TrEMBL record:
Residue span(s) of domain THUMP-like: 322-391
Keyword Zinc attributed: no
InterPro entries in UniProt: PG_1098_Fer, SAM-dependent_MTases_sf, Thump-like
Keyword tags: Methyltransferase, Transferase
GO MF terms, alphabetically ordered: methyltransferase activity
Transmembrane segments: none
Protein name (Swiss-Prot/TrEMBL): Class I SAM-dependent methyltransferase
Residues covered by the PG-1098 ferredoxin-like domain: 279-321
Amino acid sequence: MNNSILNIEIQEYIRNNINSNISDLLLKGVPFNDIDPKVIIEQLEAKQRSKKKLPTWFETENIYYSNKLNIEQTSSEITANYKANLAHGKSLIDLTGGFGIDTFYFSKRLEHVTHCEINTELSNIAKHNFEVLEATNIECLNTNGIDALKQTDKPFDWIYVDPSRRDDNKRKVFLLSDCTPNVKTFQGLFLKYAKRVMVKTSPLLDIKATLKDLKFVKELHVIAVNNEVKELLWILERDFENTVSVKTINIQKEKTQTFEYNIKEEQLTEAELREPLAYLYEPNVAILKAGAFNVISTKLKLQKLHKHSHLYTSKELIEFPGRRFKIVKELPFNKKAFTKENISKANVATRNFPLSVSDIRKKLKLKDGGNTYLFFTTDKRHSKVILVCAKA
């Protein structure tokens, strides 16, 4: 951590050039001779990347930023706040503290939070920023989180861990057993020191496989922001033996879409299949990632178009955690039938269909956009159909 970065002149330079092109600044040169220009540029670039993801940090003076990779890997404030609202009690230890976004939000909910970070520079950066942000109930330990647990004799209400998804060569890994620390190996240790453990994993992780790897899973939270899955959150509780509760969350600007069920409900449910009715429903990505393909149909009293299409229909319009459409017309999938409709511009989506969106656009000479929505899918009779829709 280079404290010269915090000099008034350098901080002012960063603020004044926050919207500047990095390449242009490098060509022009940085007007400071006593510090490596690359260090200033790295701070500027990291701050630029934080504007939407970390607005509190972006808007606070004298924040010291870590490198671009740390900023990319860290939780957003939106998801950190969601996680913090799940925690209760007095104490939490963050075993993989990193830049400290999650730790900071946990500190708003619990009396005492411990931030563990093995990288000395990153640990110092987080500690500095916590002081700037006036988070006085955070203790920073420059150590491996596993070692910190083994060296303490006190229990915690919560353990939080966000395993690193990079190997020794900085390549991405996705299997839980390939991440550091290996939660599969250390979950027994975690549950020895805390009754509840919160594990953040990649949204690409296979849910069924992970449920076999982890013990005592009480809840799975599938968290999406603006219909993009950001993370999977696993809540482990010591000696919990009941059915796993699944909570899907799609956080949007106007409202948050939620849908909850338990694993057994999905396993024991079979959706009723039916031809398209008056309205069409497309689940958000959190529901699709969770695999709630049948239970959403029975819980919301909807019918499904096909076992593998994951599109739903009803006679009356209902509230739904996803997109809703009025079905204007159903067409068979052939060029002649479609040409008669004189549709030259539309939003195209496919579900359980052999052609890609780009292939369809090329085949039917369709431009993107407009107020018409076309769903290319397979119905209960296994026929390929086009549903012409408008937003409901």
